[in-house]
Amino acid sequence: xxxxxxxxxxxxxxxxxxxxxxxxxxxxxxxxxxxxxxxxxxxxxxxxxxxxxxxxxxxxxxxxxxxxxxxxxxxxxxxxxxxxxxxxxxxxxxxxxxxxxxxxxxxxxxxxxxxxxxxxxxxxxxxxxxxxxxxxxxxxxxxxxxxxxxxxxxxxxxxxxxxxxxxxxxxxxxxxxxxxxxxxxxxxxxxxxxxxxxxxxxxxxxxxxxxxxxxxxxxxxxxxxxxxxxxxxxxxxxxxxxxxxxxxxxxxxxxxxxxxxxxxxxxxxxxxxxxxxxxxxxxxxxxxxxxxxxxxxxxxxxxxxxxxxxxxxxxxxxxxxxxxxxxxxxxxxxxxxxxxxxxxxxxxxxxxxxxx
Length: 356
Hints:
Elements: H1 12-26, E1 32-36, E2 44-49, H2 61-84, E3 90-92, H3 99-102, E4 108-112, H4 119-125, E5 136-140, H5 143-149, E6 157-158, E7 178-182, H6 191-201, E8 204-208, H7 214-221, E9 229-231, H8 237-245, E10 249-252, H9 262-269, E11 274-276, H10 282-285, E12 291-293, H11 299-309, H12 314-320, H13 326-340, H14 343-352
Parallel strand pairs: 1-2, 3-4, 4-5, 5-6, 7-8, 7-10, 8-9, 10-11, 11-12
Helix pairs in contact: 6-11
């Protein structure tokens, strides 16, 4: 609810939500998307938060409490509408803790897009008096993140993120000596470290993404800008395809336990090898022939990974991305939804679909 589900996407969760909603509609499901006003998908939209609402992370504590309260009211409203509606199942793609307690009586698949660091959520699921609803399934986007959540939740499936591979075609003629980077520009994404590593490796670097933390950009990134360090702006998916393909190497530099990393897979699909830090799921995504993982979280170690990744074969990198086919992801989600929805409901729904 912080950002509209529309291009250019603010992050991976927004992109994932749009792709998932559109794919389910394309497969014949009747989908309602509860999201911020201005969202644009093929699903039926239900605007929960006005388009001009902005969650200010650097606001005073009192204002942040007020903002959180406003968003909680929006979630409560959506839960009421869902309870009153004729929905077979709920896909919880949010970061809210409220569905864990106020939707226990509804079939629900929760997709865990973060590590178990959400204070409100972990407080609920670690409470000795809380038990998971038998109508709920929990799924996350990598084995690494699943291992972290299984300390709190008994059942966590893995459905890796997928992309439309055919939309991320690349080139065999990248710009020599150019590293590319794309993500939300926030401290935990480690852009400053990526810039320092590119310089140590003797590479130019271009980066793209929304400036989600202006103080970080002004103090850590702007002083690093030069003829060899260039900001390309907040790019659409189509622009990102060309951007990724232009790189000799893509740098993945999360300083936190990154649960997945859509941009890593998108870059691989264009044939661009990955130089990554050893944090979160990045080592799980990057096969040895498709890139290199730094031995530690330092600029020097990442620079060595950049040099190694630059020697990887681009066709091999592209081949590595096949593991993340979009239809495989949707098949995985549909199989979980089928387990959640009573068989009688599924039979009625199937009978209502006209024969081809």
